[in-house]
Design a protein that fits this description.
By secondary structure, the protein is mainly beta. It folds into two domains: 89 residues, no CATH class; 127 residues, no CATH class. 11% of the residues lie in helices and 58% in strands. It has two helices and 16 strands. It has a 16-stranded mixed β-sheet that branches.
Length: 286
């Protein structure tokens, strides 16, 4: 058995050395810095997609000079920078691709990306608005500030997701593992899926549908729209406004359940299912 462990270890080392030799990966050099901006008329950009291997800080600001723009500032490998520099707005869509080129399958051998983050600013006039925003990071984090679009689609394989003052008709979040936090999330529908991690969302409006495999959920609603949460393992806490007059449908296969009496005056519902863990629902001010 020991022999096979040694052989396996040697194979991994050989693969790593081959990857460095063929890919030209450098582990001790700072990545070059770059900047890029796209300017457009109000009707010229409706769909913005961002892909990255690094931390992405995205914020929306009101234009102060009457122009609309998307600006990127950060660090990346030369091939990635060239991809960004070559990107153009086409058919009302823009793809900002910040992923490493070529794709690195052994990132644990590459430390040049540690601490790297991309700053993206979307500056819009009053008559400009995005129909769709899509952000995907492989291993990194996403931070969104003052973002507004009809549909927002966020996904991450591993990393943290932070939302501050986000407005959308539809918000979709898909995270394999990480921490999801937010304050001021205004939607008509919010769909969230996480394999493992912590969810803490405050000042949320809109229908909520969550599926969490393992982890804890804290959700603070500001309206009475429906909330449905399924958690395989972990605790679930939901706070609804004092005006909530619907009913609670709560069940834990193993664990405790705490909630006020259902008023059943409206059809609004808070439905929570947990295989194991604590379920607690409270009304604000009580």
């Amino acid at each position: 058995m020991k022999k096979w462990w040694i052989i396996g270890g040697l194979l991994l080392i050989a693969i790593g050395i081959a990857g460095i030799a063929t890919g030209g990966w450098k582990t001790n050099e700072k990545l070059p810095e770059f900047e890029k901006s796209w300017r457009f008329q109000a009707s010229e950009l409706k769909n913005l997609e961002i892909k990255s291997d690094y931390k992405v800080n995205l914020k929306f600001v009101k234009s102060t000079d009457g122009t609309n723009s998307v600006s990127v500032k950060g660090q990346a490998p030369e091939k990635t920078i060239q991809t960004v520099q070559d990107a153009v707005i086409d058919n009302k869509s823009l793809l900002v691709d910040l992923r490493q080129k070529p794709v690195k399958y052994f990132n644990f051998l590459d430390f040049s990306f540690v601490g790297v983050k991309e700053e993206i600013t979307v500056s819009l006039t009053d008559d400009a608005a995005l129909d769709a925003l899509k952000v995907n990071v492989d291993s990194g984090s996403i931070a969104l500030t003052d973002v507004s679009a009809k549909t927002v689609d966020l996904s991450a394989d591993s990393g943290n997701l932070t939302l501050n003052n986000l407005t959308a008709d539809s918000l979709s979040i898909d995270v394999d593992s990480g921490k999801i936090t937010g304050d001021g999330v205004r939607t008509k529908t919010l769909t969230l899926s996480a394999d493992s991690g912590l969810v803490n969302l405050k000042r949320v409006t809109g229908k909520v549908d969550m599926i969490i495999d393992s982890g804890s959920v804290k959700l603070y609603k500001e309206d009475t729209s429906d909330t449905v949460i399924k958690a395989d393992s972990g605790s679930v806490y939901v706070q609804v406004p004092a005006s909530f007059a619907g009913y609670y449908d709560l069940k834990a296969d193993s664990g405790s359940v705490h909630a006020p009496e259902s008023k059943r005056e409206t059809k609004d519902i808070v439905k929570v299912r947990a295989d194991s863990g604590l379920i607690r629902v409270e009304q604000a001010g009580q």
